[in-house]
Design a protein that fits this description.
Conjugation of reduced glutathione to a wide number of exogenous and endogenous hydrophobic electrophiles. This protein has 218 residues and is an alpha+beta fold. The chain has helices at 14-23, 44-47, 73-82, 91-115, 120-142, 157-170, 179-189, 192-199; strands at residues 3-8, 28-33, 62-65, 68-71. Helix 1 (14-23) packs across helix 6 and helix 4 (91-115) runs parallel beside helix 6.
């Protein structure tokens, strides 16, 4: 029986998980809830049933694999990764994975705050200036490695792909000084199962965020 994965009908927190599910060849049902239009942005499609799934902490995204029921996006990523040996094999790799798991969430939180801020247009120039140094740190951490943990792909490459891709959509020149990050994005997109998924009608290229967002909401 396929696993059940659910989130809003956006990229958001779900996209790295969808990419990981595709990469690992996991059979799953991709349930996408709709958020209504302005001015109310009605979320009742989810809110009316959120307590009916037996989740310990009802929220989106959720992942149900038989008797295993998980919320929190990083917990879902780690569960899938553990089942597919994508958490790092050496202690050095596992340490790098742990670091990137948390750094990527900090990275995401910054862009989410900007994207949903009513003052997006005024705040964007300073954000772009400040995030340049954050991206520089990611570039230095990656170095000459093909993947963020080292020679082998791990689950943290999936949120990092998504976040770097979002940032080059936000500001197309932002990665111009970081060839290794641009190569990382190209390398990820060239993975056979990822490439096939991105060409399929199941792939969600937009919206990035829900409709009330000032960036990526359309």
């Amino acid at each position: 029986m396929p696993a059940q994965f659910a989130y809003w009908n956006i990229r958001g927190l779900a996209q790295p998980i969808r990419l990981l599910l595709e990469y690992t060849g996991t059979e799953y049902e991709d349930k996408r809830f709709q958020c209504g239009p302005a001015p109310d942005y009605d979320r009742s499609e989810w809110l009316d049933i959120k307590h009916t799934f037996g989740l310990d902490f009802p929220n989106l995204p959720y992942y149900i694999d038989g008797d295993t029921k998980i919320t929190q996006s990083n917990a879902i990523l780690r569960y899938i990764a553990r089942n597919n040996n994508l958490c790092g094999e050496t202690e050095q790799e596992r340490v790098r994975v742990d670091i990137m798991e948390n750094q990527s969430m900090d990275f995401r939180n910054g862009t989410v705050r900007l994207s949903y801020n009513p003052q997006f247009d005024e705040l964007k120039p300073k954000y772009i200036k400040d995030v340049y140094n954050v991206i520089k740190q990611f570039s230095q951490f990656l170095g000459s490695n093909p993947w963020f943990a080292g020679d082998k792909i791990t689950f943290v490459d999936f949120p990092m792909y998504e976040l770097l891709d979002q940032h080059r959509i936000l500001e197309p020149t932002l990665l111009d000084d970081f060839q290794n990050l641009k190569d990382f994005l190209a390398r990820f997109e060239a993975l056979p199962k990822i490439a096939a998924y991105m060409k399929s009608d199941r792939f969600l290229s937009h919206p990035i965020n829900n409709p009330m967002a000032k960036f990526g909401g359309k």
